[in-house]
Design a protein that fits this description.
about 130 residues, alpha/beta, Nucleotidyltransferase, domain 5, four-stranded mixed beta sheet, 3 helices, about 35% helix
Length: about 130
């Protein structure tokens, strides 16, 4: 008999599929932010991941959904300059918590502009979403 029995392979694939389906939502991590609600046009979605500077309700800065806060603003400026140098077309966005002081958002935008970023976008939440 020269046939291959594929039933065990199908069982293994189904088990792996279930494992990946269960673990995938657990891998998405980030900083909890309550975005301000605004009627605004969504930006065009490209395949390029944006440079995201997040400000939580305590005024701490996070880069690209990292869980560790950035304490030195120089690190943000240096990373933004490096990203801009490598990919000048990448969008730079600031995502601030709705309850954070306005000054913290302005400081974040000023920090990115000091790094040479030509335009900075603000992330808001659509009023239709919960």
């Amino acid at each position: 008999m020269s046939e291959i029995n594929v039933v065990p392979y199908i069982d293994v694939m189904l088990v792996l599929l279930i494992i990946f389906m269960v673990t995938a939502p657990l891998l998405t991590q980030g900083v909890k932010v309550e975005l301000p609600i605004a009627n605004s046009e969504p930006i065009e979605e490209d395949d390029v991941e944006p440079f995201l500077l997040t400000i939580n309700k305590d005024g701490e800065y996070f880069l690209n959904d990292e869980e560790e806060a950035i304490t030195d603003p120089k690190i943000i400026r240096l990373k933004a300059q490096a990203v801009l140098r490598n990919n000048p077309d990448i969008p730079f966005l600031v995502r601030g918590d709705g309850s954070v002081a306005y000054q913290a958002v302005i400081d974040a935008i000023t920090l990115l502009q000091a790094a040479g970023i030509p335009s900075v976008g603000l992330v808001t939440k659509d009023p239709g979403t919960s």
